Amino acid sequence: MKGGEPMDKLRLIVAAETEDQRNEAAKALASEYVQLAALLSPDGAGLSKAGFIPADVLLLFSDCLNRREADFLERLYMTRPELLILLLCTETDADLLARALNAGVSRVIELTSSQETPLDALFAAWYRQQNRQNAVRSGGVSYENRVLGVFGTKGGVGKTTLAVNLAIALARLNKRVALLDFDLQFGDVGVFLDIAKADTIVDMIEENDYEYAALSSFLHKHHSGLRVLAAPAGPEYAEIVRPEHVDKVVLGLRGEFDYLILDMPPAFNDVSIAALEQCSEIFFVVNPDISTLRNAQVSFKVLDTLGMTERIYLTVNRDGYSDLRKKDIEDVLGKQAVLTLPCDYKSCAKAVNRGVPLVLSYRRSRVAAEISRFAAFLAAGHGIRK
Fold first, then answer.
1. How far apart are CA 350 and CA 345, in angstroms?
2. Tell me: the pLDDT tens digits for 77-99?
3. Which domains can be identified in the chain, with CATH numbers?
């Protein structure tokens, strides 16, 4: 397959008392990933239509949730258990929240929230429900507390592509996952996830509270269910972060997540070594070119000196890009690749430019499929063959 195909669209029914409200809600939730299935009123006629229209989510826009609207939602909650029911409002209060919960609403979304957009909240609620349903089908969820580092001492080899997509793929498999951007000077996890502004490790350090309750407030909530710690706003802030800060952050978070995924800088320094020492597995990413392989050979010697050889797992990215094949790379580096990703620059570039990772936007691309397969392998608890 040359490229990927778009993710399946989420089918949305919007209900509201007035046409203006319906149009306002539809505008707030407009996206290439949302298919507007119907606009209707929360009355008898609307209930008849909503009972049969194929849809994933029904969203009611109301600031009061009167008796008729609550009855409308409750009937759908009882008759269409597969339908996620959400309430959109301009502001919330305790009484509104209580009525919403009693009517079967899974989440109340504020139209003007400063924390997240209505669209982000919509997808966050949707992915959460999907994860719960998957957990029921699979017989439950286990908690693992693993720290995975994605590393390579040559820039541009695809570390962030792997870190971001592996993190989201694991999150979609019912795992609690946090992605930490430890490329402190030029980290761009936020670009890959279209996060315009978020707290960083520098903000955590300034707070100087490493209990999980405090740390979690600095993690950005991505709509996929992934929690993200962004890189500092500029390279000048990198020197603020010391090895002891990395230790405290990782130790404070790891007990609350199945996986911490660390997107590492392409360098050996005190901070990166401290982060690597926290990792249970380190995925070393290489490309099939002589320059990268020579760099990797030197890096493997350094990692061996640091006593990390047993934690290093070779990952080959852009396989097929050159005459060097996976077997050649394995022979040169003396390790078998645990993950091999094909060359699909077009899909990868499109995903970055759109700020929607491959495993969400181009799920049928060969790269996304391979990362998702590997995530499922990890989530199933299989040991990684050296």
1. 9
2. 999 999 999 999 998 888 898 89
3. 10-137 (3.40.50.2300), 146-379 (3.40.50.300)
